[in-house]
Amino acid sequence: MGSAAIPVALVAVGGRLAYIKVGDNLLPSLYVAVFKLGLMPLAVYLTAQYVFGLEPLFVATITVLSAMPTGVFTAVFAAHYQTAEAEAASTIVVTTIMSAVTISLWLGFFSDIEIGCTGEKGAPLSAPSAFRWANLFAFPYGGAFFSKSGRPFARII
Length: 157
Fold this sequence. Notes:
alpha+beta
């Protein structure tokens, strides 16, 4: 039952969008998108980099994650509390479209950063290589990111 929650929410938002004109709610959606896709990732980057001094891989990861578009549960909560339903659905559409540009910009920004990982032959990985080869959702064990087969993708220096 719980595994159906996200697909059902997506269908609900899609059904809601059939009756909502995004253009009617464009100004509030753009306002939210500027903060969600522009200022929030910038604040996360500056805080992670200069306040907490995190390693570049972690800075890049949390910055890109904070640049993701508004999630579908925003519309679900708006419908549940019967407030700003049209604005929530429009914001999901606008931020999803705009995130194609903003996420690309952030990934480009991090593409030349030395992230402190080495590949199988000991050569340093660039950020795109590390994002491609490291299993970032697995727990690092013994300083390495492991695949499901147990073979390490990348080793933390």
